[in-house]
Design goal:
The protein has 342 residues and is mostly beta strands. The chain has helices spanning 2-23, 42-46, 60-63, 248-251; strands spanning 74-82, 88-97, 103-112, 117-121, 131-136, 140-151, 156-180, 185-207, 214-222, 226-228, 231-233, 238-246, 258-269, 275-284, 288-296, 301-313, 316-327, 333-341. The longest helix is centred in the first third of the chain and has 22 residues, at 2-23.
Length: 342
């Protein structure tokens, strides 16, 4: 009973902190470095990103650090996301289980924006279009994380991840003084747009005790305010709560060849309205998997599906996963994940 009380208390505290921050800001356009909110894992994304209680192995670094306690020994993961508008996101992670002492992990998330052409506003006497091309912009975004998860007992675990975040939007000339507004003549100043900051993820993972039903909670991308010139923003802060279970243990208790893993998440983000994620996974003989999911209340993403296969390679247990996510207004989103454990 005490354990359940502590777990509920943690959820209430995290929700309260987030709600206080949320109440002070509008619900749109108030976060930056939004690549940190992009789902990286192919399995998790195929299941509608309903992942806070459903994630497994080293992927927990990106969804709920508390789940890392389920990892025994060493694990590593590589993620590739073909994101919208010809951009890409990469996620690399490694973790090691220390038995009763918990699990430690490190990860790197990198955003590749592709080619971005720089322009500068000029007088139409210089160029009748009103601007000139200044060359490609050097833009970079990455976050390095260090995580630790601890199993309080056989039922409950908690985890925390510190992340160092770097963003460089390159050097750009901005108008600082108006000389002749009618003819579009301004005085420009060159500035370096760069930020180094920090953030935290917190997570909890609780095994209810009925079959393999689990409850998860994660508070991701907590940080203080950052500022570009006059624009103040935060990381894409979000509170995630959800549950997961293999319903085949209820529907078909006498067989072990088939799993029907289902998951359900509710999200409360700082920069949008609340959303719901659902997903399911059909696994045969613990080797082949078919997955599908749906994300409710999104402008771009909605349904998703994917496949996965597990394999052994010279003593390493591995899995390869692929997911497809339908995107409104943009090309579809494809993800690939490669997991290894020892």
């Amino acid at each position: 009973m005490k354990l359940k009380f502590y777990f509920v208390t943690v959820i209430i505290i995290l929700f309260s902190i987030q709600s206080i921050n949320y109440s002070q800001q509008k619900k749109a356009g108030q976060s930056g470095m939004t690549y940190l909110a992009i789902s990286l894992g192919a399995r998790e994304s195929a299941m509608g990103n309903a992942s806070v209680a459903n994630v497994s192995g080293t992927q927990g670094l990106f969804y709920n650090p508390a789940t890392l306690t389920e990892l025994k020994g060493f694990g590593a993961v590589l993620n590739h996301v073909s994101w919208i508008a010809d951009t890409r996101v990469y996620g690399f992670g490694a973790a090691y289980g220390l038995d009763n002492y918990g699990t430690i992990g490190v990860d790197l998330v990198y955003m590749d924006y592709g080619q971005i052409v720089g322009t500068k506003r000029v007088d139409k006497s210089v160029n009748d279009r009103g601007f000139i091309i200044t060359g490609d912009l050097s833009v970079s975004d990455y976050a390095v994380g260090l995580a630790y998860a601890y199993p309080v007992n056989d039922l409950f675990s908690f985890g925390v991840k510190y992340k160092f975040i770097h963003e460089n939007l390159g050097t750009a000339a901005i108008a600082v003084k108006e000389i002749d507004k009618e003819n579009g003549i301004y005085e420009f100043e060159t500035r370096q747009w760069q930020i180094n900051h920090w953030g935290f993820d917190f997570g909890g993972y609780y095994k209810v005790g009925y079959k393999d039903l689990v409850i998860g909670v994660a508070f991701q991308n907590f940080s203080t305010d950052m500022k570009y010139w006059t624009e103040v923003f935060q990381l894409p802060l979000v509170l995630r709560m959800g549950m997961a279970m293999d319903i085949a243990k209820v529907l078909m208790p006498n067989q072990s060849d088939i799993e029907i893993n289902t998951s359900f998440d509710v999200l409360h983000p700082i920069d949008y309205t609340e959303s719901v994620h659902i997903g399911t996974e059909l696994v045969y003989i613990n080797m082949f998997a078919l997955r599908a999911g749906y994300k409710f209340n999104y402008d771009v993403e909605d349904f998703s599906f994917g496949i996965g296969v597990k394999f052994d390679l010279q003593g390493y247990a591995g899995s390869f996963d692929y997911s497809y996510t339908h995107a409104n207004f943009f090309d579809s989103i494809n993800r690939l994940s490669l997991n290894f454990s020892l």
